[in-house]
Write a structure and sequence with these properties.
single chain; four-stranded antiparallel beta sheet; 12% helix
C-alpha cells in the first residue's frame, strides 16, 4: 500500500545525519552535553538532568519508563467491541513493545504484555492472531487508549515504533507540521500522512498552531508563533515543522492549545503556560506574552489534571472536580456569576463561584465554556449570540448553568469551538447546538447520520469532525481551506464519511481554526520502511 507524503527529513541526502530525539538521547550518557539535528530540522543542545535522568529520557536500554495507561475499562470495552469488526480487513498491527528479556524484576504485568505481543505477532503456538487478539491488545497498550494499568517500555524498544499522523486543511502558518515552505499559502483537502519517527501520546490544535506529547514525555509545537505560543523562546513568526519545547524534566499528562496560547499538565498536577497574555489567559498575573513555558501559580493548594483554553480565556480542572478560570470575561465565559463584572479580565486562576457540582471534563469554545459533571450534566456559560449555550435563547450567561434540553441524558464527552457538541454515555449519540452550515440550533439536536456511533468529536471554526466507534472520521461544515478532508472545498450540512482515511484506523481527532490533525495507530518502524 502506498502512503502519501511520508515526511521523514528535509532532504534525502541529509537523512544519514538526522536523528529522532529519543534515539539521540538514548545514545548519550547522563549529564552529557551534545548537539543534534533532529528530523524537524532543528538543532538542539541537550543536557541530561543528573538528579532524575529517567524523567528527562532514558540513559540506556536498561533504564525503563513507567507509562501510565488511562481510559476506563468500560470505555476500552466499548472501543474493542466496535473496532474488532474492522481489524481483519485493515490488517493493522497493534502498537506495542518488542518482547523484553525475561527478568524477574519486571513482574507479572510485563510478562503478560510480552505474552500478548507474541499472540499479535503470531509467534505463540505458531497461531495467527485473531481479530479479537489484535484489537484487545491494541487498546490495552496503545498510548491513545490508555487504561489504568502501566506498560513498561524502554527507549531502545520505543525507537522501533512510530505513530501515524494525519493532517489536513489550512497550513498557512505551518501548523500541519509538513515542513512545507510557507512563502505561498497552502491548504490540503486530502489528509497528508506524516511520519516523525516517534510515538505520540496526544495532540492538540489551537487557532493557528498545534502541539503534541511523545511517549517519552517530550513536547513539540508547530505553526504560528505570533505571541510566543510555540514556547521555543524565539521571536520567529512561525515554524513549519515540530520544534522541541524546553520544559522541566517531568512526566506530562496532557497538552492543550488555545487561541494563541499553549498549556501542559504534569502528572503531579503542575501547569505550564506560554503564548499570548493580553487578557490574562495564561494565569500568570500579568498581561505580557510569554515566549517560553512558566509555571502557573494557583492561590490554593490544588492538583490540576486538565486544561481547556479558548480564544481569550482558560479553564482548569483539578483532581477533586473543582473548576478554576482566568482570562477575558467579556461575554461571561468565566462563569463568575456577576453580569456587571462580565467585561473584566481575571489575571490569575480563581474558582468559578457559579459551579458547585463535580466536574470531569472541560471544553472552552471561542467565547463560551462547557463543563461536564461526573453525573453527565452539561453546564454552559458565555457568549450565546448563535445559540452556542443551547438554552433556546441568544442571551449571554455569566453563570454556569445546566443545558436543560439534554439534562435527562447523561453525557460522556463535550467539545466546543464556534458551536457546541456532546456525546451521550449510553448510546454514543452526537448532539450539536449553535449555528453553522448544518443550520441554527438554539437547543441540542441529535445527529441522525451517525446515530449510536460517536466516541469523540472536535469542533473548529464553523466545522466539526467526529470519530466513530469503528475508527472512521465524519466531517461537516465550512470547507474553504479543505478542513473537511473530503478532497474538495464544498460545504457540507451533514456529517460525511472521510473516504480518504477509510483504510486507516484513527484513534483521536483534534480541530484547529481551519485545520485538523488526527492520530492513527502506533506501528513498527520496519512497517514504515517497507511501504
Amino acid at each position: 500500500m502506498q502512503m502519501q507524503n511520508v515526511i521523514d527529513s528535509p532532504g534525502s541526502e541529509e537523512k544519514q545525519h538526522l536523528t529522532t530525539l529519543p534515539a539521540f538521547l538514548a545514545s548519550q550518557k547522563s549529564g552529557a552535553n551534545d548537539t543534534a539535528i533532529f528530523r524537524s530540522g532543528q538543532s538542539h543542545s541537550i543536557q541530561r538532568d543528573t538528579a532524575s535522568p529517567e524523567l528527562l529520557c532514558f540513559t540506556n536500554g536498561e533504564k525503563r519508563q513507567s507509562v501510565p495507561a488511562g481510559t476506563s475499562a468500560k470505555a476500552t470495552l466499548q472501543m474493542n467491541e466496535s473496532y474488532e469488526a474492522r481489524s481483519n480487513s485493515l490488517g493493522h498491527r497493534s502498537a506495542m513493545s518488542e518482547k523484553s528479556k525475561d527478568k524477574q524484576s519486571q513482574g507479572h504485568h510485563e510478562r503478560e504484555f510480552s505474552r500478548e505481543l507474541n499472540v499479535i505477532q503470531g509467534k505463540e503456538n505458531k497461531e495467527k492472531p485473531t481479530k479479537d487478539d489484535q484489537m484487545r491488545t491494541f487498546f490495552k497498550y496503545s498510548p491513545q487508549h490508555k487504561g489504568s494499568e502501566e506498560t513498561l517500555l524502554d527507549i531502545k524498544t520505543e525507537n522501533d515504533f512510530y505513530t501515524e499522523v494525519f493532517s489536513w486543511g489550512s497550513d498557512r502558518y505551518g501548523q500541519l507540521g509538513l515542513g512545507v515552505d510557507m512563502a505561498s499559502e497552502h491548504s490540503y483537502s486530502i489528509p497528508r500522512f506524516c511520519s516523525y519517527n516517534i510515538t505520540i501520546r496526544q495532540v492538540s490544535c489551537g487557532q493557528n498552531h498545534a502541539g503534541f506529547i511523545t511517549q517519552s514525555n517530550f513536547v513539540y509545537t508547530m505553526g504560528s508563533n505570533s505571541h510566543g505560543q510555540l514556547g521555543i523562546d524565539e521571536p520567529t513568526d512561525s515554524k513549519n515543522s515540530p520544534c522541541l519545547v524546553e520544559l522541566p524534566p517531568k512526566r506530562y499528562s496532557m497538552i492543550n492549545c488555545g487561541g494563541n496560547t499553549s498549556f501542559v499538565c504534569s502528572e503531579e498536577g503542575t501547569v505550564y503556560s506560554w503564548g499570548q497574555g493580553r487578557f490574562g489567559q495564561l494565569g500568570s498575573g500579568k498581561t505580557q506574552d510569554r515566549f517560553k513555558p512558566e509555571e502557573v501559580n494557583f492561590k490554593v493548594n490544588t492538583r490540576i489534571i486538565k486544561v481547556s483554553a479558548g480564544l481569550e480565556h482558560t479553564a482548569f480542572l483539578d483532581v477533586t472536580g473543582r473548576i478554576f478560570v482566568c482570562g477575558s470575561n467579556e461575554k461571561g465565559q468565566l462563569g463568575l456569576g456577576n453580569i456587571d463584572a462580565s467585561n473584566e479580565s481575571v489575571l490569575e486562576p480563581v474558582p468559578s463561584p457559579s459551579f458547585s457540582d463535580c466536574a470531569k471534563q472541560l471544553a472552552s469554545g471561542s467565547y463560551h465554556t462547557l463543563v461536564l459533571s461526573i453525573s453527565g450534566l452539561v453546564y454552559v456559560a458565555g457568549l450565546n449570540n448563535e445559540g452556542q449555550l443551547g438554552d433556546a435563547s441568544r442571551k449571554n450567561s455569566a453563570l454556569l448553568k445546566v443545558v436543560d434540553e439534554i439534562s435527562h441524558i447523561p453525557m460522556k464527552f463535550v467539545a466546543a469551538g464556534s458551536f457546541s457538541a456532546a456525546i451521550s454515555e449510553d448510546k454514543m449519540d452526537l448532539f450539536l447546538w449553535g449555528t453553522g452550515s448544518f443550520g441554527e440550533f438554539l437547543t441540542p439536536h441529535r445527529v441522525k447520520k451517525i446515530k449510536g456511533q460517536t466516541v469523540s468529536v472536535s469542533v473548529g471554526y464553523g466545522f466539526g469532525v467526529a470519530l466513530s466507534n469503528q475508527g472512521y472520521l465524519y466531517s461537516w461544515g465550512m470547507n474553504d481551506f479543505g478542513q473537511l478532508g473530503s478532497g474538495d472545498f464544498k460545504v457540507q450540512t451533514t456529517p460525511q464519511l472521510m473516504t480518504s482515511l477509510e483504510s486507516k484506523l484513527v484513534t483521536s481527532i483534534e480541530c484547529g481554526q481551519f485545520f485538523a490533525i488526527g492520530l492513527g495507530q502506533t506501528l513498527r518502524q520496519s512497517d514504515n520502511n517497507n511501504i
